[in-house]
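Hi P.,

Sorry for the delay on this. The queue was packed all week, but I finally got your sequence through. Input first:
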Amino acid sequence: MIPGKMVANLEVDIPTYDVYQMDYEVPVTLVEYSSPSYDPATGNLLAQATNRGGETIFVEAVAACFDAGHNLIDFGWGSDYIESNATIPLSLYTVNLGGNNCSSAATIEVFTSEAN
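Then the structure:
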């Protein structure tokens, strides 16, 4: 903007998206995880991930490990493709924050994002 000047012409692009009906309903929870566990042999967190949707998706998961006071002690992440209505083993690689690791976690929570 230049002080004392007026806009003579303003162009705005509005993106539009095609909307189409799928042959299935998308469930409220698209991916379900089993309770993750710590694998001392690999240092990773292991869980089962189930795709409840009707298409193959790519899932990225992050797990947070908390002590009894709900303080973060470590975290891990992993990703994979999951076919429609399939369950796969998912290994989440941990980072080992300051000597603590998920082996001493009181709780482990999984957070996810998915895309098709």
